[in-house]
Structure formats: structure tokens, C-alpha cells
Amino acid sequence: MAKFFADAPFRLYLGVVLVVIFIILGGILPWFAPGDPLVWYTAPRNQAPSATYWLGTTSLGQDVFWLLTYALRNSLILGLIVAGLSTVIGVFLGLAAGYAGGWLDRVLSFFMDALLCIPSLPILILMAALFGGQLALPFVGLALVLFNWPYPARQVRAVALTMREREFINVAWFSGESSVRILVRHIFPYIAGWSAANFINTVLVGISTESALAVIGLSSAQQATLGTMIYWAINYQALLGGKYVWIGSPVLAIVLLFIGLFLVSSGLSMRSSARRMSI
Amino acid sequence: MALLRYIAGRLVVYVLVIIFALTVLFFVPRLGPTDPVEAMLAKVASQGAYMDAAQVDALRQSLSDTFGLNGSLLEQYWAFIKRIVVTADFGPSLSMYPTPVMSLILNALPWTFGLLLTSTLIAWVLGNFVGLMSGWKPGSTTSRIMEGVAICLYPIPYYILALVLSILFSYVWKIFPLTTTIRGAPWSWDLVTSVVWNSFLPAMSIVIVVFGWWVISVKAQTTALKEEEFVRYARLKGLSDGRILSRYVLPNAILPQITFLALQIGLMFNGSLITEILFDYPGLGLLIYSAVLQGDFNLLMGTISLSVIAVATATMVIDLIYPLLDPRIRHR
């Protein structure tokens, strides 16, 4: 860990701190919730923030603070799964395209380019409208993976293309190393830093796109996410009633979480490009 | 000759992308766990309309027709592609019967394009200016502050910013309208001010985010270009800072921005859809939303197909502009 931060830029520290705060809020605190915060009328309605209700309560009698932790948990899980799958699929297909070349490369590259210029949100809205007005989170995740693997794939393909020509790969090859070992020992270090940065960025994009769908009421209504929280607040007239804490807390959470994620992702890519230069 | 080959290559890819996108759109309704026809019938029933069995059957039949669910899969697919590509006909709108979907879309498109183009242009000019300035003197306080501001703005999604702006300037401090209402006779000064006044907040939400990205990227470019030999030569030659920035640094800093724009246009479009819905702005986003709310399948399929085609076309146009700006591609 100390080595990780040794040549890290300041923004990486700041980003990690922000993200860790939200991981604690969304990953650990929900276990300590006094009850399911989604259930209506488990708290008095329309309370202002106080010692018992840290962020007040909604007009449906939900505790905003605990609702927020649940929303954060679901959004983070969605983002992590989307980013994990997209990165694994993207790196694998990118390596395959760059390494194999030929028709496989052409076909895969076409799909990468095509998916990059199709906007994801209209497709998600279409799915939501056709699947009964609301889209369950697993479907949202699946669609997001489909639209997000091309980013890492393109980058990894480009790296793999240059790698094929490098001397040390040939040396490793002719000294009898297996291709799996070459991939893991010699090529992976080149794409690891960038892939990590892209992974974090995909977490951001995943959470953001789901929230966009949720803000207009087309994502799952059974689970709280940051977006559905905003949707409920708008729908139950939190703004006209002047209940700015109710709508403000998920908005502020998204803003701070995204700034944190962006700082980590750009910090990581700065760090890895600085290291590549120095090699 | 090389340029011609480049353009031809791009056009072939463009046609393939459009076909691929339409294929995706064709299969989405068929991959769902629910039958869209039954879902729509349930929606009609839930709205309180009482129908006897024969009427339900008639409605089911006519919906299957509009969904293009009759015949074999291949026939359905061919009919779907032909209807969109050859005739550009999405049928009549079901909720605003019998207005054709196409004319509704044509009314909405100028609003979406106007909003996106104007705000991207404003953000581009501002972002380039601030980015160049802060990249030229990366250590100065103003430059650090500007970069800090940009880093805090760029990761915020458009719709969140739209929400924040509308809370601040329409609820708390009531200076801008909450929803869009355009007034004034055609081609009058009233109409122009009304459009600008109503578009201000939606446009700002896009301008601010895009501005953030441009500052970050142009600053990084400028800081790197500053160390290049040709910039040092220009400085030693005694050229003014303004001339070096505008003639030596800016043209080189613009190229990566164009690639970025091509990659980002889909995300910007996503953002503007939600922004339009939040502000009741009469563009494509609001049209898609009303199609969803009213279960208007023809309108939904039309607007979604058209937005996908529009984004793919915009990406291609940007790709075609690229060689005009980069002589290195032209002469290869």
C-alpha cells in the first residue's frame, strides 16, 4: 500500500478518501440500519434534520439518512458489477483482437466502433418501456455491460498491437515461455494501470446511467438507488414543499461520489503514464 | 486519392453501423421477458377501459401489426429495416392520432440540435480559452483554481446539474422559468427572447459540464505542447504569447478534442435527453418521455430509432471533418 502511494499525485489521495467515505456509508452502514428504510411510515413524516433523524424524514415517513445508505449500497453494487464485467470482457476481447489480428480483429473492431456510437440511454428507455414501464436492476446492468466493454477493449487492442512487435516479447517467446505466461508477466503490467483507471471510470458511468434512467422513473422501483431517491423526492413534491434536504442529499452524494471516482481514475492514469515514461 | 479512400471507408462503416443499430432495435422488443403486446394491453386495461374479448382480440391484432410481429422473423426484420431506411415512415402516433410520428420528430429535432450545438459551441470557446491560458502558466494561482473548478464540474452528470440549477434558480431564487413555455409570433423579437430565456438553464447545465472537460484536456495538451521544439523556436524568434498560442499551440491542441467529441457525443445526447425532460424542453427527449408515459409504441420506436441514427450520423460527420483539419491524414 505504501508503495502504491509512493509516486501518486495528490488528487489520488483526495479521491481515495472521498470514495472510501462513500464505501463506508453504502457498504458497511446499511447493516446497522434500524429497519428497512424503504418501508413507509416507519418514522414520523416531514421531519426536519434532528438528532434522531440526521437528514430528516420524507413525506412518506422514511428516514432519509438510512434510505441514502441503502441507495448508495445498491448504486455501488450495480456500478462495481458493471465495471467488473465490462473490464474483464473488454480486456479479454481487446487482447484477442490485437493479438490474433485478421478477420477476428476486423469483426471485433467493428463491434467496438459500432457500440461506441450508439447512445445507451435511448436503448435503455426502450427496454424499460417495453418491459412494463420499469427495468429491473439486473437488466440495466446487463445493458450497461454491453455498452461499456468497447472502451477498455479498444485501448487494450491498441496496446496489444504494439506489443506484438516489441523485442522483449519475441525474446520471451523464443526462450520458450508459454503464451499465457507472456500475457500475464509481460503484457498485463502495461495494461493494468490503464485498466484500473478505466474500471473506476466505468463504475461512474454505470451509476450515472442507471440514475439517469431512475430520475425519470424508468428504473426499478423495488430497490432504492441514488436515482430512484431523486425520482421519489421529485414525485412527492419535495421541492414545492421546500424539503431541500430530502432531494439534496442524494444529489450531493452523487456529486461528491463522482468527483471522488473521477479523481481516483484520473490520478491512476496520471500515475501509470508517469511510470510508463520512466521505464 | 487517400482522402477519397478514407471517406469511402468511413461511409461503408457508417452504413454497417446503422444496420447494426437497427438490428439491435429490432431484437430488443423480442428479447424481453414480457410480450410487448400483452404489456400494452395490460396498460390499456389498467387505465380503466373495459373491453370484451372480441375487442381485446382486435386490439391485439392491430398492435401486432404495428409492432411488426406478423410473419416469420426474417420477414419481420426485412419489413422493419425497409420501413425505416427506405420510406423513413414510423406510422401515425397512437396518442396524437393521426399525426405522423415523423412530423412530431421533425418539430422536436431543431430544439434538441439547437440546444446541443449552441451549448457545445459556447463551452468549446470558453473551455479552449481558459484551458490555453491555464496551460500556458500551469503553476499560477488562477490556473490551479481554474483546474480545480473544472475537475469538480466535469464528473457531474448533466441531469444532476440541471436539477441543481433548477432548484437554485427556479425554486429558491425564482428568476428563471421552471418549465418551458415559448411565447411570441413566428420570426418576432419576442419569440427570440422567449427562446433564449427558456433555454438558458438547460443550456447552462450542458455548457458547465462540457466546459469542465475542455479546460482539463486543453490545459494538459497546452502544458505538453509548450515543451515542444517548434514552440520554443517560436518563442526564441520573439513572437508574442498570443500569436504562439493561437497559431502554434491551438491547432495542435484541437485535434484530440475532435476525437473526443466523436466519442462523447452519445453521452452528451444521453444527458440532453434527461435535461430536456427535467425542464419540459420541447425536444426529442421530451417526445421520447411522453411516448413512454402514454404507451405510444410507434412514437417510441420512431424517436429511439431516430436518436440512434442521429448520433451515429453526427459521429460520422465529425470523423469526416477530421482529415480537413489534420493535414497528416490527407497526405498519407
UniProtKB/TrEMBL annotation, chain A:
CDD domains: TM_PBP2 (cd06261). PROSITE patterns: ABC_TM1. The chain crosses the membrane at residues 12-33, 53-72, 77-101, 121-147, 212-234, 246-268. It is a multi-pass membrane protein. One of its GO terms (biological process) is transmembrane transport. It is found in: Cell membrane. Its main location: membrane. Residues 72-265 form the ABC transmembrane type-1 domain. The keyword Iron-sulfur does not apply. One of its GO terms (cellular component) is plasma membrane. Keywords: Membrane, Transmembrane, Transmembrane helix, Transport. PANTHER family: OLIGO/DIPEPTIDE TRANSPORT, PERMEASE PROTEIN (DPPC-2), OLIGO_DIPEPTIDE TRANSPORT, PERMEASE PROTEIN (DPPC-2). Belongs to the binding-protein-dependent transport system permease family. This is Peptide ABC transporter permease. It comes from Devosia epidermidihirudinis.
Automatic annotation (TrEMBL), chain B:
InterPro entries: BPD_transp_1_N, MetI-like, MetI-like_sf. GO terms for cellular component: plasma membrane. It comes from the Bacteria. It is a multi-pass membrane protein. The keyword Cell membrane applies. Its main location: membrane. Pfam families: BPD_transp_1, BPD_transp_1_N. The chain crosses the membrane at residues 7-28, 108-130, 151-176, 196-216, 299-322. PROSITE patterns: ABC_TM1. GO terms for biological process: transmembrane transport. It is found in: Cell membrane. Gene3D superfamilies: MetI-like. Keywords: Cell membrane, Membrane, Transmembrane, Transmembrane helix, Transport. Residues 109-322 form the ABC transmembrane type-1 domain. Signal peptide: none annotated. Belongs to the binding-protein-dependent transport system permease family. This is ABC transporter permease.
